[in-house]
Amino acid sequence: MAEDSTEEKMGEHDLAEGQVPITALQEHFSVSYTRMIAYAVGCSIKTHETDYEGVDITVVSSTEYHGYYGPQFELQLKCTYQESLLKDDSMTWKMKAKPFRKLTRTKRFIPAYLGVLLIPREPEPWLHTNEYGLYTRSRMFWQSADNLRHDGPIGEYHTVHLPRQNLFTGEQLLGIMKSIGEAERGLR
To answer: Which residues form the DUF4365 domain (predicted)?
Structure first.
């Protein structure tokens, strides 16, 4: 999840307190962030034992829509602290060709999405807690795999753009579910 060519290479000195690699913490934090958003609006998460198919989790709704009951989508998660990837209109992300091709397959039965979580760079904590609540400066941008497809040749890497307007919020998550459930074209 967290590993990508644009990330600096992590070594043994990049272990968090308790000897957990930072990349592993980023993976868990991105899943936890997604869970909190999903649970807050009544959705649930199915986990995958591996991300061999190019996705990490499946987000599921139990709502009945005009087209379908219980819409769901698969989500590939990435995590970075590189604020420089955030441009005026989009979050750019450089994906390796193989996971990109898996994510954007046209024959997917369940719609797929990419989510990139932008976390604060250390030493700023990723999460603040106090008696008033829980707070993070982290934010996730998303895009439908259908809208990431690329018809031309792909080298070893492919840069994708996730619109800044696609901020992963409870409201936007419910919009994705409605789009899938109502069988609308486009933003599956």
So the answer is: 27-178
Write out the DSSP string of 27-59: HHHHHHHHHHHHHHTT-EEEE-S--TTS-SEEE
101-111-144-54 Cα dihedral, nearest 10 degrees: -40
Dihedral sign for Cα 5, 28, 122, 92, please. Answer: positive
Task: Report pLDDT digits (tens) over 128-151.
Answer: 999 999 999 999 999 999 999 988
Residues 176 and 158: their CA atoms lie apart, in Å, by 25
**Rounded Cα–Cα distance for residues 56 and 60 (Å):** 13
Sketch the domain layout of the chain as residue ranges: 17-181
pLDDT (0 to 100) of residue 50: 82
- How many Cα atoms sit within 13 Å of 60 on the Cβ side? 9
Q: Alpha-carbon distance 119 to 115, whole Å?
A: 13
CATH number for the domain whose boundaries are 17-181: 3.40.1350.10
Percent of the chain with pLDDT over 90: 73
* C-beta of residue 176 within 8 angstroms of C-beta of residue 113: yes
